[in-house]
From TrEMBL:
PANTHER family hit by this protein: 2-SUCCINYL-5-ENOLPYRUVYL-6-HYDROXY-3-CYCLOHEXENE-1-CARBOXYLATE SYNTHASE, PROTEIN PHYLLO, CHLOROPLASTIC
Lineage: Bacteria, Bacillati, Cyanobacteriota, Cyanophyceae, Oscillatoriophycideae
InterPro entries: THDP-binding (IPR029061), TPP_enzyme_TPP-bd (IPR011766)
Protein name per its UniProtKB record: 2-succinyl-5-enolpyruvyl-6-hydroxy-3-cyclohexene-1-carboxylic-acid synthase
Annotated ranges, domain Thiamine pyrophosphate enzyme TPP-binding: 86-188
Species this chain originates from: Plectonema cf. radiosum LEGE 06105
GO MF annotation: an example: thiamine pyrophosphate binding
Pfam families: TPP_enzyme_C
Domain of life: Bacteria
Length: 215
């Protein structure tokens, strides 16, 4: 009937959109934030527990995750909690389990860095893929982003944190990732023990522009 035809048209459009996104991301060498989620969906070891932070990471997973049969186990906090407890939740998921991964932005990680205090009691491994765009990238998608001031000070809230020094304070391993091939190499196989941060520095305005032009 008419409903089936509409459904077929909708599904066809989704398939075409999926193919276009996959083609574009496969050819993208610049450090666009959404490609992190796309790459994670394809290179992680099967059954890897993956904690996804709120704000843009969970949306990027929804937009760019490439469906497959790797059986990645997704976890995320939903509801009114926002970015509260992001790191602590991820460490709880990884503790005494197989090697796990967290995908997070800089503000969500900064909001819960005291979670690193559990490091001496933590058993297992957590890799933190840190999208550092120095602020709240999700707000770049809103009309308020065109108004400066007050956008940077009141909405984006850049913190200008040196994550290498922050990790050093807690005795956590830190690596700055400069290419997608480097990230791919670091994600499979995963280490068996410890906590490490793989930092990807991105431009949130350029990433927002990419999303608006391609989604």
């Amino acid at each position: 009937g008419q409903g089936d035809a509409y459904l077929d048209m909708w599904l066809g459009a989704e398939v075409d959109g999926r193919k276009n996104i996959d083609t574009i991301l496969a050819e993208t060498s610049e450090l666009f934030e959404g490609k992190a989620a796309w790459l994670l969906s394809q290179v992680l070891p099967p059954q890897t527990p993956l904690f996804i932070a709120n704000s843009m990471p969970v949306r990027d997973v929804e937009f760019f995750w490439k469906p497959n049969n790797l059986g990645i186990q997704p976890f995320f906090n939903r509801g009114a909690n926002g970015i509260d407890g992001t790191l602590s939740t991820a460490l709880g998921i990884a503790h005494n389990q197989q090697s796990s991964v967290m995908l997070t932005g800089d503000l969500a990680l900064l909001h819960d860095t005291n979670g690193f205090l559990i490091r001496n009691k933590f058993i297992g491994h957590l890799t933190i893929v840190l999208i550092n765009n120095n602020g709240g990238g999700i707000f770049e998608m809103l009309p308020i982003s065109e108004f400066e001031p007050p956008f940077e000070e009141l909405f984006a809230t850049p913190q200008d944190i040196d994550f290498a020094l922050l990790c050093q304070t807690y005795g956590v391993k830190h690596e700055l990732i400069s290419s997608w091939e480097e990230l791919r190499h670091k994600l499979n196989p995963l280490p068996n023990t410890g906590i490490r941060v793989l930092e990807i520095r991105t431009d949130r305005k350029e990433s927002a522009k990419w999303r608006k032009e391609n989604l």
